[in-house]
């Protein structure tokens, strides 16, 4: 739901000023349509239905993996694919991985989203709608309430979402205005900025702008190689922003925001998982500023992922060189919902 359009429309209809907030709060509480917002006059509900699309993203497919991960494939009103993922953890966290662009302009060679090319930036509300969708999924599958018909004095407490990662399709820092508006709207859904992570391929002006915002978000950097030569082959954006510049921007971010930057490092067999590369990585990253997360590669065709053994020995070398690292647990692989598998067309990565 486009909040600006909502506010404008309600003003045009001569509605009182509190209406927009009321409608938005109902949507954030998990209402699936205007019709369900029974606290609004019926005529207003149908008026809104005509003028302000409840959601402009159309759900095309929804897949659920055995580990509870849900992947949703949407189309924008103008036909572009958008993918998002819900991850549920035993400790109760409900984390959404959402897209900020349809496709991606940066063309990292290992990533399915990069390979599909760039369609367009998503609007702030298209970004928020992905999270709203999963909020309803969580509420409808995990709430003890039997639905909106239940006669209770108060609405059921919202089971809710807890974390967001802007790590789906796209480069968030190349669509920063919309991303900032979306991040500022997410607390309405229970996701505060401290539990929102923005992941970048190293778009330096975006990192600097983000550092200057009064917004305590987490910053993640996709590094994937310890030297410019290799990184340039994997991530063409390196030609524009070399590693030294990117890390310097991350240090400025840390200096201002006092939050460590999470470095993501994909483990590609025989490409970036050698012992010397672990040592080089340890020299690059000061543990006072950076945390390192090693990411098992979800194969999308071009590369082979490092074995568990190779990942463990890489981690061991890092540790000896003074840098501790964590290893990311892959989720939702069998439904191609895992990192780098978001390509907008189910089945195109050759998995069954
Ligand atoms: N453009 C941003 C956000 C999108 S990618 C960025 O580059 O950070 C989010 C994460 O998924 C990145 O760390 C990316 O490197 C990782 N990723 C991409 N392809 C992957 C794959 N096939 N397997 C595992 N992780 C992948």
The helix content, as a percent range, equals 25-40%
Structural class: alpha/beta
Number of helices: 11
- Helix and strand run: HHHEEEEEHEHEHEHEHHEHEHE
Radius of gyration: 21 Å
Count of domain modules: 2
> How is the largest sheet built, in terms of strand order?
1-2-3-4-7-8-9-10-11-12
Count of distinct strands: 12
Shape: elongated
The parts where pLDDT drops under 50 for at least 5 residues are 347-352
CATH topology of the largest domain: TIM Barrel
Strand content: 15-25%
CATH homologous superfamily assignment of the largest domain: Aldolase class I
Query: What's the assembly state of these chains?
Result: single chain
Ligands, ions, cofactors: S-adenosyl-L-homocysteine
| CATH class membership of the largest domain | Alpha Beta
**Major pleated sheet:** 10 strands, mixed
Give the integer mean of the pLDDT values.
91
The appropriate CATH architecture of the largest domain is Alpha-Beta Barrel
Distance between the termini: 35 Å
């Amino acid at each position: 739901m486009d909040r600006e359009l909502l506010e404008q429309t309600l003003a045009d209809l001569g509605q009182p000023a509190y209406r927009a907030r009321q409608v938005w709060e109902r949507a954030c509480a998990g209402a699936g349509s205007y019709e369900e917002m029974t606290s609004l006059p019926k005529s207003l509900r149908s008026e809104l239905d005509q003028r302000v699309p409840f959601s402009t993203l159309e759900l095309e497919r929804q897949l659920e993996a055995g580990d509870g991960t849900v992947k949703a494939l949407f189309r924008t009103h103008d036909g572009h694919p958008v993918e998002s993922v819900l991850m549920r953890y035993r400790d109760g966290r409900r984390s959404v991985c959402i897209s900020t662009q349809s496709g991606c302009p940066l063309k990292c060679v290992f990533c399915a989203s990069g390979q599909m090319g760039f369609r367009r930036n998503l609007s702030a509300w298209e970004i928020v709608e992905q999270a709203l969708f999963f909020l309803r999924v969580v509420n409808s599958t995990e709430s003890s309430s039997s639905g909106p018909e239940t006669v209770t004095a108060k609405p059921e407490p919202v089971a809710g979402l807890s974390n967001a990662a802007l790590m789906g399709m796209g480069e968030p820092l190349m669509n920063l205005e919309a991303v900032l508006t979306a991040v500022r709207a997410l607390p309405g859904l229970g996701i505060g900025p401290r539990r929102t992570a923005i992941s970048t391929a190293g778009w330096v002006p975006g990192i600097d702008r983000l550092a200057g915002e009064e917004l305590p978000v987490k910053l993640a950097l996709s590094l994937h190689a310890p030297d410019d030569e290799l990184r340039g082959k994997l991530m063409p954006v390196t030609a524009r922003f070399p590693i030294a510049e990117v890390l310097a921007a991350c240090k400025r971010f840390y200096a201002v925001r006092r939050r460590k930057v999470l470095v993501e490092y994909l483990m590609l067999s025989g490409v970036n998982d050698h012992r010397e590369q672990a040592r080089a990585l340890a020299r690059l990253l000061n543990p006072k500023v950076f945390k390192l997360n090693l990411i098992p590669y979800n194969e999308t065709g071009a590369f082979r992922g490092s074995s568990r053994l190779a990942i463990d020995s890489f981690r061991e070398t890092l540790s000896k060189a003074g840098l501790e690292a964590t290893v990311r647990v892959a989720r939702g692989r069998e439904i191609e919902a895992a990192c780098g598998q978001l390509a907008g067309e189910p089945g195109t990565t050759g998995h069954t």
